Amino acid sequence: MRKAQQYVPTLRLVRILAFLAGWLVLSHGSLADVAMSGSFLANADCPAFQSFRKGTNPGGVKIEVGHSYPLIAKNAANATHYRIRIEGAAPPERWVSLSCGSVTENTNIGAQGSEAASDIASEKQTQFVLSLGWEPGFCESHNNKSECVSEASDRFDANHFILHGLWPQPRRREYCNVGQDLIDEDKRGDWQALPSVNLSTETREHLAVVMPGTRSLLDRHEWIRHGTCYGSDAETYFRHALSLVDAVNSSPIQTLFADNVGREISISAIKDAFNSGFGPGAGDRVRLACKRDGSRLLITEITIGLGARPDGNTPPADLIRASSPTDPGCPGGIVDPVGYQ
Description:
Elements: H1 2-28, E1 34-42, E2 68-74, E3 81-85, E4 93-97, E5 101-105, H2 111-123, E6 128-133, H3 135-139, H4 146-149, E7 162-168, H5 180-187, H6 201-210, H7 218-225, H8 234-249, H9 252-259, E8 264-266, H10 267-278, E9 286-293, E10 296-306, H11 316-321, E11 332-334
Helix pairs in contact: 6-8
């Protein structure tokens, strides 16, 4: 009798443990998940699941074509899904299908290297991200945009970086003190319904050159979504952003791109150019975004981490080196020339 009493609780415990193991598998993927380091480059707008087996996707999050995301793990050695990190999503760790993109695995960092990188990252924090576009690459898939229709080989954005945005971090820090009606209009892409941005004539004229997307009212979108969290007025926000873009366009990185229009360049060459222009380690704060265009992989954007809020006086090199290292993103791509290829 005593043996039977001991057996029943043991059987129940086994069943409980089996249930918990099954729940973990269904909720978070497989117990055989394989840790990875690298990036996932999206080639399709696909859902990003909290649990791909259950199909749960809090917030209806999707990855965006041409964007690269830090890679965390795969669901098995012969993977069907990859776990990535999407800043601003809740929760940020999501599963995406292998068919939605391509993987670049970082195989150069051993255990000691990973620990060292983690130590560096823990000491510094990225407070802002400067996003710069390569307009010809962007326009290959946005030929209906006003700035792309008017694109010309003698225009500034044919061989210079252009301003996409200056984004307070983390990415969920957006729409500060903005009414829900404006948020809804912005998310619908109805930027014409957004209020015009209050800028001086000088700043507006400068912005029209460096941010050709103003023709599509990109300035209104960037101010409502990101600039309202900058802690200043629109004039200061855009002046600081323009100063940073000017610094990049006066550096070896612009020369690298302008000298290689129509050719492919690697992330290592881009990092070297940033290190040359902004000091050792600056290249580790840069991520590259690419987009597939037929058989070509085009560079569309670079994002640069900043460790503090720009104040108009601190050198960009200091702001960049004060941020935490980031995943490099796309391994390289073609510097697209003006015109549809």
